[in-house]
Amino acid sequence: MDKSNIQNILADLIYDLFAVRKIDKDIIPYVDLIDDLGMDSITFISIIIDIEDKFNIVIPDEKLLLEEFRTFDNVLNIVSELLNEAACDCDGNAKTGGKND
Known about the structure:
Non-ribosomal Peptide Synthetase Peptidyl Carrier Protein, Chain A; 3 helices
């Protein structure tokens, strides 16, 4: 899955979770989920659950910090990285990855 598709899926999750209208694609990478959209600990947990379910990934404990998920761009990078790791191991061999492994 390319980064543009991931961005669109994440944007839809954010729009639904925060009940916001569409945010311009040029601006969304810079949206601060805490300051601009009011993310709190409950919303943070909801985002984690939604992302893990939607992308069939497990976000490692060391990434489960509010500060790691502060901006949309940070979230996009974390999800992209995890999806890339799930798709291919260090030797370049395809593997299934995801929550069910």
